[in-house]
Specification:
Chain lengths: 266, 328, 445
C-alpha cells in the first residue's frame, strides 16, 4: 500500500489548500482540517492532519528535508525541517500544545503561539508522530516531589545563562530564550528533553527525572516568588529600578522643589 | 472641684512670661496676618504624622504580621510625608516670606592677601639660603610621603604578575563536576554543555571552570597544532569570557543545523559568541581574543583528563597576554 | 525658653553673632536651587540607614551552608556576607526596610547629583569664583558612583558578582599597569584575596563616606562663604544678593524638602522591592545569568562595553590595549575630563575671566547649552545601548540592529542635539527681543 501512502496526501492536498503555518499568526494558507468521520482512529486522523499541515516541511512519513526543496504535491513550497523519526510523542506534544508548530517560515525560531488544532487533533498528530519510530512518550513530571533549593542550583548551572535566574527570559545572538511563566510542568519537562531550536538537550543522564522535578518546582516558584520587599518590578533587576528612580522618585522630588521654591517669570 | 481644676490650669498656662511685642517699625522679622485654616491644617498634619509614627512602632512590635516591611515603610514614609506637607503649609502660609537684599561679600580682600603674604615673607627673614632649605624640605617631604605610602604595596603582589598566567589545571588532571564526580567521555552528549573543574584543585579561580561540549569530529576545524585536542569530538574551553570575565553560561546548540544559527558558546554579559568548532574564535560581540581551549585526553577508565595547558591565558585580557594567532 | 537656650550657647561658645548672621543669611529663591539639597538629604538617609546595616552585615567571604528561614536557599553554600544580607532581609524586623531604603537612597542620591550638576552647568554657576565648588561637586559624584558600586557588590550575589568581574576586567585593561592595578585592589587575580572584602567594607562604610562628607562640608562652606548665585530679576545684580533668610523663610522649605526625601525613600523602601538578592542566589565564578545589569548610574558603562567593536589593540603578539579599556575606562575618563576642564576651557574660549554671581538662563549662553546638550546626549545614547537586550525582549527590536543603530547614533545624535539646542536658544532669545521691542513701541509715549 505504499502507493496509497503517497497518493493519499496528494489527494488531500489536491482537495485542500497547502498549509504553511506561521507561529503566532494564522498560517498564510490556513490550517487543513481533515475531512474525516468522527470515529476515525487517532493515528489515522493524525496521518491525515500531518499530510495536510506538516508534510511540506517534514516530508512524507516524517522523513524530513535537510535542504529546502519542494515536497511531493506541495505546489512549489520549499520545505526544510528535521526528520521526525524517533522524536516520540514527547516532541510532538510539546510543539503542538504550545503552538510552536506549525511554523510560519523555515529558519524562524519556533515560539509559543496560538494553538490552531483542537485537543483531539493534537492527540491524533501526537499519536501519529509517536508511531514514527521508537521515541520517548509524553513525560509526567512530579514537581511536588522536587526540592526548590536543588532546583535553584540546577537552574543556575544549566538554565539561567539563557533564561535568566528568575526565569524571566533572555537574549542570545540569533535567538530568544523565553520567559517561563506560561510553561506547564509537562512542557518544561518536554523542552528539557528535546532541546528545541538552540536550547541544549538534557537527557536523563545529564538531568535525571528527580532533578527535573526539582527544576520544575523551582520554575514554578519563580512565577510567584517571595516578594517580601513589595512590588517586584518583574524580577529582572536594575533596569526597572532605574526607571522607578527617575520616573517616580526624581519626578516627585522635583515636584516638591517646584512646590517649595519659586519660578522665574520672565 | 471645678475651681481647683481652673486654678491648676491657670497656674500652668499663666506662667508664660509676658513680653510686650516690639513696636512694628522696630521688628526684625515683619509681621503677617494669622491664617487659622493653615494653622489647623498644620496641627492636623503633625498629629497625623504622630499617628503614623506610632503605627510604625506598632507594626514593629507586633509578633508576626504579613508584609511587615510594607507596613513599616508605609507608616514611616507617610509620617515623613505628613511632616513634609506640614512644612510646605508653614512655608507658604504661616511664615512671612521676606525678600531681602544684601551685598555679596567682596570678590577678594587685597589688603589681607597682601598682609598674609607679608607675614609669611617677613617670618622667613632669618633664613639666608631659602631655596636650599626649600629643596631640602621638599626632599624630606617627598621621601617621607613615599615612605608612608610604601606599605600600600603589600595590598597586592604589585610587581609579580605570574599568578595571572597560572591556572589550577595540570596535564593529567581529571575533569570533575560540581559534586566532585569525574566525567567519562561516554556521558558527554552532543547538543549539551557541561561545566567541569580540576580534580583536587582550587575551584574559586578564573582558570578553574571549563565548559565541555561534544561535536561531530567531522564538523571540527581546529588549528592544525590542536588536532589531537578533542578526542571523539569532545572539546573543552575556559568558561571565563576573554572580554570582561563573566562565566560563559550559554550554549547555542541547534536542533536542526540547516535552519538556524550555528553551535556557539555565548557569554550572557555582552554577548561575546565563540565558535567551538574552530577552537574558540570570536564570531560576535566585543571579545577581542579567542576563548582559550584546554586539550583533552581520555584515560584508560574512559574518564576525561587535561592533556596539557590552555591554548592561551585565561580570563579577560591584560597587557601581558601574548597571542599566538594575530586576530580572531 | 528660647532665651535660656540661646544664652547657654552663647556663654559656652560665643557664637551668638554667628547664629544671628546665620539665621538671616539669604538664600536666593528658585526651585532648581533646591536640587543639591535633595542630594544632601539623600546622603543623610544613606548614612542613617547605612549605620543600621553595618550592625548586621558580615563582610566575610568564609563559606557557610544556609539553613535559615528562606526555603529556596536551603542547603546552598554561600559566603557569610551573602548570608548576612539574607538574614538581614528575613530575620531582622526592619532589616529589609533599611536595606531597601538604603539602596533606593543610593539610586536617588546619584540621580539628584546629576540633576543638580545639570542645573549648575546649564546656568553657568561653575564660573569663577565657584569653580572650586564645582570641582568638589564633580569629585563627590565620582565618589558616589564608586561607593554605590562597592556597596551593592559587597553582598556577593550572582548579579553583583558578575559586575565585580567586569570591574576587574576594566582595571586589568589599563595599558602597562592593568595587571598590577587589579592585583593591588583585589589582592590577587579574580576573585581575589578574602581581604578584598575587608577593603570593600572599610572603603564603603568609612573611607568613602568620610571623603564625601568632608568634601560636602567644604562644598557647603564655599557655597555659604561666596553666597549662592541668583537669576537676574528685578533687584538682583552682581553685587547685591536678593533672597529669603534662613529663618523663618527658608527653614520650613528645607525641612519640608528633607521630610519629602525621607518620605519618598522610606515609602519606596517598604513598598517597592529593590535588589532581591535572595532571588539571584550566591555568586560563583562558574555561574552567570542572562539579563545581568548594573545599577542605573553605571548603565552608561555597560552600554559602552557592548558598543565597542571586538578588538584588542595588539602589536604583533603583544597585547597593548584590551577591549574593555575603551568603554570601561577611557569613556568615563573622557566624560569626567570634559566636565572637570569645562570651566577653564570656557574661560579660555569666551575670554570671560570675570567673577559671576548672576546666573545665565540656558538660552542666554547658546553655545554652552548646546555643547552641554551634546555631551549629555552622547552619554545618554550610550546609556540606552546598555539596555538593548531587555529592549529586544520587551519590544522585539533586533539586538544586532540596535547595536549598529547606537553605534551610528553615538556620533550623529550629539551633533543633532548641538545644532537643535543652539537653534532653540537663539530663537528663544530672538523672540524675547522682539517682545521687548514690541512692548517698548506700544508703551505710551
Amino acid at each position: 500500500m505504499r502507493t496509497a501512502r503517497v497518493v493519499l496526501p496528494v489527494l488531500l492536498l489536491a482537495l485542500a489548500l497547502p498549509a504553511v503555518a506561521a507561529s503566532s499568526v494564522p498560517p498564510p494558507y490556513g490550517i487543513v482540517d481533515a475531512n474525516a468521520p468522527r470515529d476515525t482512529p487517532l493515528r489515522e486522523l493524525g496521518f491525515q492532519l500531518y499530510a495536510g499541515n506538516c508534510s511540506t516541511c517534514h516530508g512524507p512519513n516524517g522523513s524530513g528535508f535537510p535542504e529546502a526543496k519542494p515536497g511531493l504535491g506541495s505546489g512549489g513550497i520549499l520545505g526544510k525541517a528535521p526528520s521526525l523519526h524517533g522524536v516520540g510523542e514527547l516532541s510532538a506534544d510539546f510543539y503542538l500544545r504550545t503552538g510552536r508548530m506549525p511554523l510560519g517560515h523555515v529558519g524562524e525560531q519556533p515560539n509559543r503561539g496560538h494553538v490552531f488544532f483542537s485537543d483531539r487533533e493534537i492527540r491524533a498528530l501526537v499519536t501519529y508522530v509517536g508511531s514514527l519510530g521508537k521515541g520517548p512518550p509524553i513525560p509526567h513530571p512530579h514537581p511536588q516531589r522536587g526540592k526548590i533549593a536543588e532546583g535553584l542550583q540546577l537552574f543556575t548551572q544549566h538554565c539561567a545563562g539563557c533564561h535568566q535566574i528568575a526565569a524571566g527570559g533572555g537574549y542570545l545572538p540569533g535567538a530568544v530564550a523565553p520567559a517561563l511563566g506560561q510553561a506547564t510542568p509537562t512542557e518544561i519537562a518536554e523542552a528539557v528533553r528535546i532541546g528545541p531550536y538552540v536550547m541544549p538537550r538534557f537527557g536523563p543522564q545529564a538531568i535525571s527525572d528527580k532533578e527535573l522535578d526539582s527544576i520544575i518546582a523551582y520554575v514554578d516558584y519563580t512565577n510567584h516568588p517571595k516578594d517580601s520587599g513589595g512590588w517586584s518590578l518583574g524580577h529582572v533587576g536594575p533596569i526597572p529600578e532605574g526607571l522607578v528612580t527617575w520616573l517616580l522618585a526624581a519626578a516627585v522630588l522635583v515636584g516638591m522643589c517646584l512646590a517649595l521654591g519659586s519660578r522665574l517669570k520672565s | 472641684m471645678k475651681r481647683w481644676l481652673t486654678a491648676g490650669l491657670m497656674l500652668l498656662l499663666g506662667r508664660r512670661k509676658r513680653t510686650l511685642p516690639a513696636p512694628e517699625d522696630e521688628r526684625i522679622v515683619p509681621p503677617g496676618g494669622a491664617d487659622l485654616r493653615a494653622e489647623n491644617a498644620v496641627i492636623l498634619l503633625l498629629l497625623a504624622a504622630a499617628v503614623c509614627a506610632a503605627g510604625f512602632i506598632a507594626a514593629y512590635a507586633l509578633g508576626s504580621i504579613p508584609n511587615r516591611t510594607q507596613f513599616l515603610g508605609l507608616a514611616l514614609g507617610l509620617s515623613f510625608a505628613f511632616l513634609a506637607v506640614a512644612c510646605l503649609v508653614v512655608a507658604r502660609r504661616l511664615v512671612v516670606t521676606e525678600e531681602l537684599e544684601e551685598e555679596y561679600s567682596p570678590v577678594e580682600h587685597l589688603e589681607e592677601q597682601a598682609a598674609i603674604q607679608e607675614i609669611v615673607t617677613e617670618s622667613g627673614s632669618r633664613f639666608t639660603r631659602k631655596r636650599l632649605v626649600k629643596v631640602a624640605a621638599g626632599t624630606a617631604g617627598g621621601a617621607l610621603g613615599a615612605a608612608l605610602i610604601a606599605p600600600a604595596v603589600s595590598l597586592g603582589p604589585i610587581l609579580d604578575t605570574s599568578a595571572f598566567y597560572t591556572t589550577p589545571w595540570r596535564r593529567g588532571r581529571r575533569l570533575v563536576d560540581q559534586g566532585g564526580n569525574p566525567f567519562s567521555a561516554e556521558e558527554i552528549f552532543e547538543k549539551l554543555f557541561y561545566t567541569a573543574f580540576p580534580e583536587g584543585a582550587e575551584r574559586e579561580d578564573l582558570g578553574a571552570p571549563i565548559v565541555v561540549v561534544r561535536m561531530e569530529p567531522a564538523q571540527l576545524r581546529l588549528p592544525s597544532e590542536r588536532s589531537g585536542w578533542a578526542p571523539e569530538g569532545i572539546l573543552a574551553f575556559s568558561k571565563i569570557c576573554t572580554h570582561a570575565g563573566c562565566a560563559i553560561s550559554l550554549y547555542r546548540a541547534p536542533l536542526f543545523p540547516p535552519a538556524g544559527p550555528k553551535a556557539a558558546l555565548v557569554c550572557p554579559c555582552h554577548y561575546s559568541t565563540f565558535d567551538p568548532a574552530t577552537g574558540g574564535d570570536v564570531i560576535f560581540g566585543p571579545a577581542g581574543r579567542p576563548l582559550p581551549q584546554l586539550p583533552l585526553t581520555v584515560d584508560e577508565n574512559g574518564h576525561l583528563r587535561a592533556a596539557g595547558n590552555f591554548s592561551g591565558p585565561v580570563g579577560p585580557s591584560w597587557w601581558g597576554v601574548r597571542r599566538k594567532d594575530a586576530r580572531s | 525658653m528660647i532665651g535660656r537656650t540661646v544664652r547657654f550657647l552663647d556663654q559656652r561658645s560665643g557664637t551668638a553673632p554667628l547664629i544671628r548672621k546665620t539665621l538671616r543669611y539669604l538664600f536666593p529663591d528658585h526651585w532648581s536651587f533646591l536640587l543639591g539639597e535633595v542630594a544632601l538629604y539623600a546622603f543623610v538617609i544613606l548614612v542613617g540607614t547605612g549605620i543600621y546595616l553595618t550592625f548586621f552585615f558580615e563582610p566575610s567571604t568564609a563559606k557557610t551552608v544556609y539553613h535559615g528561614v528562606y526555603g529556596p536557599l536551603h542547603g546552598v553554600e554561600m559566603t557569610r556576607a551573602y548570608r548576612s544580607a539574607i538574614d538581614m532581609s528575613f530575620k531582622v524586623k526592619a532589616g529589609l526596610l533599611m536595606r531597601q531604603t538604603h539602596h533606593w537612597a543610593a539610586d536617588v542620591f546619584v540621580a539628584a547629583i546629576v540633576l543638580h550638576m545639570l542645573r549648575i552647568f546649564f546656568t553657568g554657576a561653575f564660573r569663577k569664583p565657584r569653580d572650586l565648588t564645582y570641582y568638589i561637586g564633580l569629585t563627590m559624584l565620582l565618589l558616589a558612583l564608586l561607593e554605590g558600586y562597592v556597596g551593592y557588590s559587597m553582598i556577593d550575589d550572582l548579579l553583583s558578582g558578575m559586575g565585580l568581574a567586569i570591574g576587574y576586567s576594566v582595571a586589568l585593561s589599563f595599558p602597562f599597569i592593568g595587571a598590577e592595578l587589579a592585583q593591588l585592589i583585589w589582592g590577587a587575580p579574580f576573585p581575589g584575596d578574602p581581604q578584598f572584602w575587608s577593603r570593600m567594607y572599610i572603603g564603603h562604610v568609612l573611607l568613602f563616606p568620610l571623603a564625601i562628607a568632608a568634601l560636602l562640608g567644604l562644598h557647603l562652606f564655599l557655597v555659604a562663604a561666596r553666597h549662592h548665585t541668583q537669576f537676574r530679576r528685578k533687584r538682583e545684580s552682581e553685587w547685591k544678593v536678593v533672597g529669603v533668610p534662613t529663618f523663618p523663610g527658608q527653614t520650613p522649605r528645607s525641612l519640608g524638602l528633607f521630610f519629602s526625601v525621607a518620605s519618598v525613600l522610606f515609602l519606596l523602601g517598604g513598598l517597592v522591592q529593590i535588589n532581591p538578592v535572595w532571588l539571584w542566589g550566591p555568586y560563583d565564578v562558574s555561574n552567570g545569568t542572562n539579563g545581568a545589569q548594573p545599577d542605573w548610574y553605571l548603565g552608561w558603562l555597560i552600554g559602552a562595553l557592548r558598543l565597542v567593536p571586538d578588538f584588542d589593540v595588539t602589536i604583533g603578539s603583544y597585547t597593548l590595549i584590551p577591549n574593555p579599556f575603551w568603554g570601561g575606562a577611557l569613556f568615563p575618563l573622557a566624560v569626567f575630563a570634559i566636565l572637570y576642564l569645562w570651566p577653564s576651557l570656557e574661560r579660555r574660549f569666551t575670554g570671560d575671566q570675570a567673577f559671576h554671581n548672576l546666573l545665565d538662563r540656558p538660552r542666554d549662553a547658546p553655545v554652552r547649552t548646546a555643547l552641554g546638550a551634546a555631551l549629555f546626549t552622547w552619554v545618554f545614547v550610550v546609556f540606552l545601548a546598555g539596555a538593548s537586550d531587555r529592549v529586544f525582549i520587551l519590544l522585539g527590536i533586533s539586538y544586532d540592529w540596535q547595536i549598529w543603530i547606537y553605534r551610528v547614533l553615538v556620533f550623529v545624535a550629539p551633533a543633532v542635539a548641538f545644532l537643535a539646542t543652539k537653534r532653540v536658544c537663539e530663537e528663544l532669545k530672538a523672540g524675547e527681543l522682539v517682545e521687548r521691542r514690541r512692548k517698548q513701541a506700544e508703551a505710551p509715549a
